[in-house]
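pasting for the record
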Amino acid sequence: MPSKRRQNYERLSDSQKTDTRARLAERDISAKQREAQVMRLRVQGWSFARIAEEVGYADQGGAHKAWKRALARIPKDAADDAREHLRLQLEDMSVVLMAQLYKGNTRAGEALVKLQERYCRMLNLDIAPEAGAGAQMTVIPIAADVLEAV
């Protein structure tokens, strides 16, 4: 049995159906343009919260979903290039944070832990040991005075 939405659509006149199809096509183009903008901003290193504000999503979750939809539509090679670019950005940030950590900036250490967690998620290295697959990274907090001694 057809859905209620489909039944309502079938009741429309031909001109109303044409208008409906045109509106849906326009909405689809607009959504794809927004998703493309999300991809460009994400590759530039923007956070999903900032992207949501810029592009007009209600929250960072909307921007993240748009990013995932856009990734699913692009060819694998292009997606791999985007991931590699993000990986290199994370490595560059890691170098900067390590330098700050060695200078005694403990907040840099906190940021580094978050960065490493993100890196592990991206590379699918954060699988729980009981799952029986993948590597496991354990983060051990180190007191600043101990870190200085090393």
